[in-house]
Amino acid sequence: MLKNYIKLTFKVMLRKKYYTALTLLGISLTIMIVTIFASFIDQIISANSTEVNRDRTLILDKVSVYKNGKQTDAVPSLTFLQKNVKDMESAGTISYFSTTEFVSFINGKAVGHALKFIDENFWKITDFKFMEGKAFDINAVKKGARVAVINEKTKTYFFNESEAIGKTITIYGSSFKVIGVVESATPFSRIYADVYVPYTTDTNVQLTNKEVEGTYSALLLAKTNDLRKVRAELKAKLKRINTVSGADSVHVQAFTAREQFAKSSSGNNDEPEYGKTVIVTLVVLTLFLLIPAISLVNINITRIGERAEEIGVRKSFGATSGTLVTQLVIENVIITLIGGLIGLGLSVYAAQLLVHLINTFDPLFKMPTDSFIISWQVFGFCLFSCLLLGIISGVYPAWKMSRMNVIYALKGGNNL
């Protein structure tokens, strides 16, 4: 039966090429936008080749100081983190990092690069694939060695296709020796950078490294999936430092990338509210799909009206309303899936165009051309969106069709 429905769907598509073109255009543009949006969210929250433990890696990037009934939020300082966020039983590995930028000049052209100051534990929490060389170790960090690990894009920019190990790059007027080349992290990840250097080479740390406020964050790799233990231990540790800057209390926020996306916008250290985020996401998705669905409903009603004789004949030979409804919904889902596949193809070129457009506004710090990657999760989500769009736009016309008067239908008209 399904095979017959598929054959009939293609015949209908070829018979009414104008309606088919309009339908596929609306579906493909909708799925194209959904794909780009889903790809952006996927890179923010999902595990990937460089962050295999992303679901157990918490990011501590905010400290709240409560004093005289007032709340002051800031990025933690390196001193604060090293003094208070260490030796945790619930966290197997802790790393401190800070992100900034620097500008290089080659052949008179200025190009911006993302720079990350890190410690040796950064490489233990992440899972970078080294194309050349190796990571710097604890000895290099302690000595403040001017060594650097760069990603593939940066290697191509500075050294073309030649080997980068042993060569130098200039950062803030100082030469750093390249000891490793890694595969680039996803552009929207907190661990992304073009260049990684020991945090002990950060010359600005003394200027910004106050008792609480600074420019550093921490990565905490939890030993288990029970992340509440990490937050509970952090809370217990901070109870002992209420005298910091004369504060009444000090709170920190430590969440995974997924939790940061899902948690409420409150300023305290509450657990993330996944339910609210899921509801909001579904509402936005439904509303977004509803606009093209309404247009597709009108097109489908017109298309059904032109198939009145066919429907009348089928009903006169005993086809039930349920059978006819199933037929149209399946037809609509098939057409939607075809449009969705076209939309997925268009999204690849549309994403590159979007990156190019964004880069025109900031030509110094350009986004990588592969910033939007279609993973299997994104592909599955887009297929789900296609099915949802096909069902939404097909149910009402199918219900109207099931009520069609047989006599009018056989005469070539309809009473929709």
Please supply descriptive tags for the structure shown above.
416 residues; eleven-stranded mixed sheet; alpha+beta
Describe this structure in words.
This protein is α+β, with helices and mostly antiparallel strands and 416 residues long. The chain folds into two domains: 2-46 and 275-410, no CATH class; 70-247, no CATH class. It has 14 helices and eleven strands. It has helices at 2-15, 17-45, 78-84, 122-125, 138-143, 152-159, 205-208, 228-238, 257-262, 274-305, 308-316, 321-361, 376-402, 406-410, and strands at 57-67, 70-74, 91-106, 109-118, 130-133, 147-151, 168-171, 174-182, 195-198, 217-222, 249-255. Strands 1, 2, 3, 4, 5, 6, 7, 8, 9, 10 and 11 form an eleven-stranded mixed β-sheet that branches. A hairpin with a 2-residue loop joins strand 7 and strand 8. Helix 2 crosses helix 12 (321-361) and helix 10 crosses helix 13 (376-402). The longest helix has 41 residues, at 321-361. The two termini are 26 Å apart.
Structural class: alpha+beta
Kindly report the oligomeric state of this protein. Answer: single chain
Instruction: Give me the strand/helix succession.
Output: HHEEHEEHEHEHEEEHEHEHHHHHH
Number of DSSP strand runs? 11
Spans of at least 5 consecutive residues whose pLDDT stays below 50 are none
3D shape: elongated
What value does the Rg take, in angstroms?
28 Å
Number of domains: 2
Number of helices: 14
